[in-house]
Each structure stands twice: as C-alpha cells, then as structure tokens.
Amino acid sequence: MATLSSQPRRRPPLSRQAIKIRRHRVRDLKDPLPHRAQEIEPPSHHLSPEERALLYEEALYTVLYRLGQPEPTHVGESSELLRYLQEAFRMEPEEHQRLLRQVQELEKPIFCLKATVKQAKGILGKDVSGFSDPYCLLGIEQGVGVPGGSPGLQRRQKAVVRHTIPEEQIHRTQVITQTLNPVWDETFILEFEDISNASFHLDMWDMDTVESVRQKLGELTDLHGLRRIFKEVRKDKGQDDFLGNVVLRLQDLRCREDQWYPLEPCTETYPDRGQCHLQFQFIHKRRATAASRSQPCYTVHLHLLQQLVSHEVTQHQAGSTSWDGLLSPQAATVLFLHSTQKDLSDFHRSMAQWLAYSRLYQSLEFPSSCLLYPITSIEYQWIQGRLKAEQLEELAASFSSLLAYGLSLIRRFRSVFPLSVPDSPARLQSLLRVLVQMCKMKAFGEVCPESGPLPRLVTEALRTGTTEWFHLKQQHHQPMVQGMLEAGKALLSLVQDIIGDLHQCQHTWNKIFHNVLKIDLFSMAFLELQWLVAKRVQDHIAVVSGAVTPEMGESLFQLYISLKELYQLAPVPSERDGVLALEGFQQWFQPAIPSWLQKTYSVALERVQRAVQMDELVPLGELTKHSTSAVDLSTCFAQISHTAQQLDWPDPEEAFMITVKFVEDTCRLALVYCSLIKARARELSAGQKDQGQAANRLCVVVNDMEQLRLVIGKLPTQLAWEALEQRVGAVLEQGQLQNTLHAQLQGALAGLGHEIRTGVRTLAEQLEVGIAKHIQKLVGIKESVPPEDGKGMGVGPEWARTRRAAAPPQAILPLMKFLEVKLCYMNTNLVQENFSSLLTLLWTHTLTVLAEVAASQRSCPLASSRLKIALQNLEICFYAEGCGLPPEALHTATFQALQRGLELQAASSRELIQKYFCSRIQQQAETTSEELGAVTVKASYRASEQKLHVELLSASSLLPLDSNGSSDPFVQLTLEPRHEFPELAPRETQKHKKDLHPLFDETFEFLVPAEPCQKDGACLLLTVLDHDTLGADDLEGEAFLPLRLVPGLTGTEEPGDVPQTRLPLTYPAPNGDPILQLLESRKGDREAQVFVRLRRQRAKQASQHAP
C-alpha cells in the first residue's frame, strides 16, 4: 500500500492518498579548513567477520530480489553477480552456498514502484477557454498483463484506472488549472506483488466544475469554444473529460526510468494528445536482512561500497596495473541495485562514495582524481542541516582525515611521488586539486570551521618535509669508516643530491605547487636547504683546514664547485628575505687555493709527459698534420682553463693573482713541451740512416709547436682577461695587468716562435744546398736546348695544377723538378703557417744564389737568359696561383733588382742599344731645365713618299765653349739605333760663327719606311756641337725626338700644320750607364764596342763642359 510522504495543497476525493516526495535546490556555503587536521587518525574500512557476513547477506539479498530490466552497461545475469560477490568477499564455496540458502529462506521484501509524475506538454484543451484543468489518476493493475507491442495501442478504454484498479489503490495528483503544460513533480509509492503480471496505469483528466451557461459564454473566445459549449450541454453535469493515458508493463521497465511518454487516446478522434514526463524506480520495503533491520540504509550502502572498491583496487594491483577509478560492470550493477532498492537519495549516494573513497585512498593506491566526483556532487546538493549529528561528525572526520593524510603525502612528496615513476607529477597535482576543492566546499566550511588556510598548511608541511629529507639524506651518506677524507666525500654526495633535488623542484614541482596553490616551493626549499648545507660545510672545513693534503685538496675543490653550483640556484634578492647563509662561501676555502693550483699544474705536467712519451710523431691525418701529443696538450690546456672558470674567485685582487699563476703554469708547460717533443724526435731518429724519416718527424715537431702556439694564443679568451680587467680596474695600478699577464703570454709566444723558426730553418737548410747546386748546373750547360712542351710544376695538389706562362727550357727542368718534389713533400707534412715560413726562407735564399750567379755571368747573355727564365718560373712556382707566397712577399727589393739585372744581361747587344735609347728618350721627356740650351724642330712623316721631313729651326741659350765666350754651333742629325737605319747617313746643318742663339732654318728629308720608326727606342738624335778648327768638336748637348710621336707616322692622311717641338739639351749620365757597362763587357761584339766607344766619347765631352 502507498503511504503519504507530503500533504498536497488540495486533498483529492479519494480514500487513500499517495506519499509525495518533493525535491529542493541546494544553497552555497563556504568556510575554512578543519583545525589540526594532522592529528586525526583515518577510520579503518576493515570489517569484522560478523560484519562481513551481514554485509554479504545484504548483497546476496539485493541480487536475488532485483527488479527491472538491466541498464545497458550493467550485468543482466544474476549468477554472474553472485560469483563476483563471492570473489569480492573472499567466500569459500561452501560458505557461499550456505549463506545463499539462508538468504533464499528469508522473507521477500515488499516490491514497490516509486513513480514521479513530473509534468506534461501539448495536452488537449477541453475547456471553453481553450485550456484544461488537468490531473492524473495512477495505480498498478495486478494479475492482468498487457500483451506485446505498445500497451497504449493494445488496450485503449476510457476511465481505465477507475474500472480496473480498486479505488483504495488509485492515487491522484493535484489539479493544475488552466494550462496545456502542467507541472506536478509529485511522487507516489505503488506496491505490487508480481512484476511479471503487473502494469502501471495513468489517466489524465480535465476537471470540470458545474457552471452556468452565462459563465461559459463569458469565457467564449471562438467558434471552437462554442462547439465545446454544445458538447457540455449534452454531457452529464460535473463529468471530467478524458485527456489520455499511459499504460506500461512493469517487467519492461528498467530499475530506473526517466522518459517522456505519449498520451494515448481511447478513440481516433485526437491521436496526438501530448506527452507526459514520468520517472520510475523499483524499491524495496521491509527487507528481511539483519543489516537492513539494524542499520541505516546509508551506512549499509557505505560498507558495501567500501568492500567492493577495496576488491577492485586489490584486483588491479594483483595484475600490476593501477586502478583508474572505474568500477567493473559487476560492482557497478550491485551498487546500483542496492542504492535503488534502498531508495538512497543522490546526495546520500555521493556521501557514501566520498566516505568510502576517502578512507580507501589512505590505505590503497588509486588515483586521487576519483575523489573529485563525490566532492562536486556533495557541494552541488549540500543543504545546511540536512544531515544528522552523527553523519556530520562522520563527514568532518573524513575531511580532517583526508587533509591530514594529504599533508603527510605532501610532506614526503619526494619519496611518495618520485620522478622515476612517469605519472608522479600528475598524481601530486591531482592530490593538490582534490585538497583545494575539498577545502572550498560549503560542507567543509560548516563541519570544519577551525581549519587553517590550505596554502599555509601545505607550506608548513613542505618546510618540515624538506628538513626531514635533508637529515635522511645525511644519514644515508654517513660513511662506514670515520675519517676526514671519507667525511668530505659524504658531504660532497649530500650537496650533489641537494642540487639535484633543487633542480627537480625548480623545473617540475614548483610549477605544480604554484599553479594550484600559488606556493613557491623552489624558493622555500632553497632557503631551508642552503642554511643546513652552510652549517654542515663550515663544520667540516673547520676540522680539515689545518692539514690540506693533495687528496683533501681535491675533495675540497669538488665541494667548492658543488657549492658554487648550489649558490647559483639562489632566487633573486627580491624573492627572499635577508642574507643567505652561503653568502661569501668562497672565503671558507681560501686556505686550499695553493693546493688546488699546485694540483692543477702537477696533473697537467704528468699528462704532457705521458702524451709525449706515447707520441710516435706521425700526423693524425691528411688534413690534421700534428701528432697525438698536440691534441693531448690542447685538451690539457683546455682543462686548465676549465679549472680557472670553475674557480671564478669573487675577490678581484685574489682572482688576478690566481690568473697570473694559471698563465705562468701554462706558459711553463708550453716550453717544457717543446723540449720534450724535440727530445722525443731525437730519440726516435737515433740510429736510423733514413734521413727522410728524420725530416718527417721534424715536420711533425714543427707542426706540433705551431698548434701549441695557436692554443696559447687563446688564453686571453679562455681565461676571460677582458672581464678580469674590468673587475680589477679599481684595485690594480693602471697597466699592471698588461705588464704582467700580457708580458707572460708574449714571452711564451716569442719562445715558441723561436723554436718554430729554428725547426723551419733546419728544414730549409736541407733544401738550400740542392737549390744552389741546381742553379750552378743551370749556367754550366754549354749549349742552349730548344724549349720543350713543359709541364706545370708546383708543390702538392694545388701546386701540381700550376701552369707556366711559357714552357721552361730543358736546362731549368732539373731545378723545377727538384723543387716540385721537395716542396710537395713539405706542403704535405707541414701546416700552412710553417710551410709559408719555409717558402719565405727558401725564396730569400734562392734570390741570393741567383744574384750571386748572375753577377758572375754578366758577360754571358745565354747564361743570363737561363737565369732570367729560371727566375720567372721560380716566381710562378712560389706563388702557386695564390696557394704559396703572396706577391708582396715575392716582389722584394732583391727580387726587383735581380729581375732588372737579368732582363738586361739576357738581352742581345742590339736590344741593349735599343733599351739605351729608350732610357734617353725617357730622360728627354723628364727634362724641363734648359741650362744646356734647347733646339726647336718641326718633324712630320709623309707616308705616301715614305719620307721623314725635318725642319731644324733654331737653337738657343747654348753654352759658350770657346775662349772668346761664344761658340760656333752646328747640329748633327742621325736616326737611331743605327742597326734599324743602316742606310741613312748622318746629316749636318751649316756652322754658325760666334752665335749662342743660331737660327738654322734648314730642312732635311730621310727616305725611310714607317715600320722601323714605330719601334721602341727609334728616335731622331740631334747632337749640337761647337766647331773647332784645330781640334775635335766640343759637345753642346743632345736632344732625342721619338719618331713614333711624329705626325703622320701612325695615320694614312698627310699631316697639315706641323707644330714646333722645343727640346732641352741633355748630357749622358756622368756615372756610367749600366747598359753601356754590359755592352762594354761583351768584348767580342764589334757593334757593341763601336757604340760604347761613341757613347763614352760623348760622355767624356760632356764631363769637360758640365755646368
């Protein structure tokens, strides 16, 4: 039978009324955390054997008397649920069967359908106004099943509830007046015996009251309303109108239903009568289990939930997987059935889930995110005063217990959430969010009003946990053997662990705590740990500072480096208060600095000695031409620089002295290495007759020294001299750093440079003998050999590609072959810097030898020609298309002088004569002074006649060469050189008596082709002479008119107006011309001797009358 749960606004005229359950909205509340949550012990979820037996009976009873169709995700077979319960409660088969029979013998519960009529929409309007006054009649028809198909279609009849269900079992809702979308939200408990032949019936009616026709006419709005009035007249007074019905078989319903159902008609007049929103739930009354009779249903459900969740977590742990918070279908089905049959509210289900999960979380491992759903659900449905006092105490205890447990996990987060487990950060973040959400709940604020703010509680837990972790680490690193060295190693390991932990806090944990709680974990942990470390380190140094052995010094250095790394992690001053305990920690280690510096030098020296002793002086590769010891030495120096960078002493003056020591030791090691590597070369070459191997080793030694020089040159950068200079600027005197560090470095570089030059000089001396020998052979060959198709000669791959502008004669090939082989060898075995030095030495020596040989072959044009060609090819060889010496290194003053000398020596006599006239023409062009006088001429060339036309106009300002203070001038005209114009005799002008400014005005014509006139050196020589009757004529001066500049010589047109040309007179060079000297040395050349004799005569005449 149904019982009332609330009183309606208007009691319907039925003998039995339904129990109405109304729903209420929750209100929001917010208060702080529980006080001293850390001291509350979490309640145990373990049950005694008797309690487990009663709970198992309750679970079996729930499965045996389940009602309704299963949910889509639930288990439908009861046998499967029973097997699951046996496993979850760990029941033996015999015990399970016994308890199952015992439960089957218990009295069945009273089956009830909890039906809630929520609302309707789109119903028919039966009143004149177009609306209705709807109410519902509902009940359960027992004993008559509705055939398959739609119940409404199979059985339509008017007043079905009144006709088929006894009046005392009919329930009625309130009447909602004048609406087509009524809202009732009324709940009724309907009992039934057998679900298989029971049907739910609901009729919806429009209540009619007795009204006069006048009243109805007043409500009339349209013709449709008028038809309703006529219908009302025919109907019995006070008879309600049928709006529709819903008929459902109970066995077709699920345990819980919430749907819209169509209102079925009894005729086809109005097939669409709207919809009705109904909620159904199958529940039990008077359950026969001991637990249901003795305990509140909420408590029983809580214990069942704890038991099943504990089993779920245990099963996952046995399979080496973590529980993800999702219940198995079997557990979800059992819990759903139990909560539904016991008619637990959503709020109490969330309460039970929270209490169960929060307790299990403290003893079993599963994600804390599983706690978020019950927290959210409780917060949403929380209503102050809804729980009883004991339930409030239980809820407060669960909040306080979880908070205390959570804070204990946070305090030990380093071990509870290790980063070695991939999901540890996510688990910690989930826990923090659960605690934050819990402390924000209105329920938490009401039941735990004295709790402090969560950020403060977490900060205290983190600070305490950090200190505890430090002491645990200190105990872990405690040495087995007590001693200063062992204690130092233990302290070093402790500091390194702290650095690693701070890095984890900075890069991982700090983000989590800051994002969730705005807590700066890293700064807090650093400030706590640095104070503990500083105290421990100071105590250790106080014990060992008196006797710093090398081993202890190494231990202290490693500790210093670790403390430096730790100090560099310090938060910026704006994020901390006061001075750090590690401030100025470097001064604690000052007594150990001498030991560190000596240790650095000793280790480096041992490495250098070992590297040289193991070096076979063989290049490492084709591109790497130094040996293994040079690489080891570079690594050794890099380690010294790294040690200096690690030290990074803060005091400027002491930092300067430390840097001076490092530079001094490095330079000393460099010079030691030079001595050792040379000794190693001598050791390997001792007793060997192969000079090539000795040369190879010498090349490697020189390359190693060059590599060392490059490494030493990087010291200012590696030791940060520029930064040091800025730091010590206010401490040291101006220039002290320059005078100290740079002087040390320059001294070392100078020593290395000397060693390198000595080695290169030795290599060069081995080649110089061969070069001199081949040059001597070059000039000793009797006859000239015609040039052959010469090959390009060079040194190495790039030198081998070098090609000569002209193929060298056969005579110089031995010299070029010698250089090709030797220089190729040297280029292969020497680095570029040393090879360039070698080339410079060889080039200087070669020029010297060539100059000496050229001086001895002045009178031999053939030998000089060979030397000239040799010089040209040597220049190309040593340049090697830009891969050898640069032009500025090749074209020295010695080279240029030798080049000019050989150019002359190799020329023929006629070529020399031609060069002589070229030089005199150049002298004529450069002369502007007329102190010897000048001549004026007009010259032109008529190409049609092949005649050179010369008009000698005058002379002026001549020197008085006679005793009477005057002269008797005349001019001799010759075309030079004579070998170009052999058929043309000299011409002369008339002689003018006693005239220093004679006006000649004479014309001369020379029949001469244009070709010889256009050659270099071709000129018209105007020799002005003073006629003497008794002796030889005296020389007034000479003028040279270059023929190539004569108008008409280069064109086909005849010249027009010919300009006058004024030529200052000149004298031959008083000190002798080198060309004349060469010509004079050629005794067997008659033409040369004649020319020289005439030129000497002119020079002698000039010397007698020089102004």
UniProtKB/TrEMBL annotation:
Record's keyword terms, sorted: Calcium, Cytoplasm, Endosome, Exocytosis, Lysosome, Membrane, Metal-binding, Phosphoprotein, Repeat
Domain MHD2: 809-916
Key word Transmembrane helix present: no
Family to which the UniProt record says this protein belongs: Belongs to the unc-13 family.
Protein name: Protein unc-13 homolog D
Functional summary from the UniProt entry: Plays a role in cytotoxic granule exocytosis in lymphocytes. Required for both granule maturation and granule docking and priming at the immunologic synapse. Regulates assembly of recycling and late endosomal structures, leading to the formation of an endosomal exocytic compartment that fuses with perforin-containing granules at the immunologic synapse and licences them for exocytosis. Regulates Ca(2+)-dependent secretory lysosome exocytosis in mast cells.
Chief location bin: cytoplasm
Any one GO molecular-function label of the UniProt entry: metal ion binding
GO biological process, one term: exocytosis
Sequence ranges assigned to domain C2 in this UniProt record: 92-237, 931-1056
Membrane topology reported for the UniProt record: Peripheral membrane protein
Pfam families, sorted: C2, MUN
Entry's localization field: Cytoplasm; Late endosome; Lysosome; Membrane
The MHD1 domain, residue ranges: 557-677
Secretion signal span: none
UniProt entry tagged with the keyword Zinc-finger: no
Any single GO CC term annotated in Swiss-Prot or TrEMBL for this entry: recycling endosome
